[in-house]
Amino acid sequence: DFHQVARRLARLFSVNRTAVAWKKMAVECSSIDRSAQLPNTESGTLKKPDGGAY
User: Fold this and answer.
1) Do residues 48 and 54 lie in contact, with contact meaning Cβ atoms separated by under 8 Å?
2) What is the pLDDT along the chain (54 residues), one digit of tens a residue?
3) Residue 2 to residue 14: CA distance in whole angstroms
4) Are 18 and 29 in contact (CB under 8 A)?
5) pTM attached to this predicted model
6) DSSP characters for 1-54?
7) Residue 26 to residues 9, 15, 21: CA-CA distances in angstroms?
C-alpha cells in the first residue's frame, strides 16, 4: 500500500531528524564541556570592572 510506505518513510525521516538533533546537541554539549575543562588562561586575563580577574 502506497500510504503505508509513505507513513513508514515519514516515520523514518522524523526519527532521523531527531537523531541528528540529538547528535548536534551532544556535540555542542561536549564542546562546552571541553572548553570548561581547558585551563582558563583567557578568563584569567579578563578583568572585572573592580579590577579583579573573573
Assistant:
1) yes
2) 888 998 888 888 777 778 788 888 888 777 766 666 555 555 555 555 565 554
3) 18
4) no
5) 0.37
6) -HHHHHHHHHHHHHHHHHHHHHHHHHHHHHHHHHHHHS--HHHHH-B-TTS-B-
7) 25, 16, 9
